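Hey, I was hoping to borrow your eyes for a little while. I'm sending you its amino acid sequence along with the backbone structure tokens. Take your time with it, there's no hurry, and the full record follows here.
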Amino acid sequence: MNLHICEVTAKNWRSVVALDVAKDQQQFIESNAFSLAESLYEG
């Protein structure tokens, strides 16, 4: 498995939101869209 960590920017946020986990893992984590919105309002 390859892992790449980078800053979410105005240029790449749509790609970040499009990332998803396997269906059987979705119960363990929020979507990237939710996490990005949460980070704006809850710091």
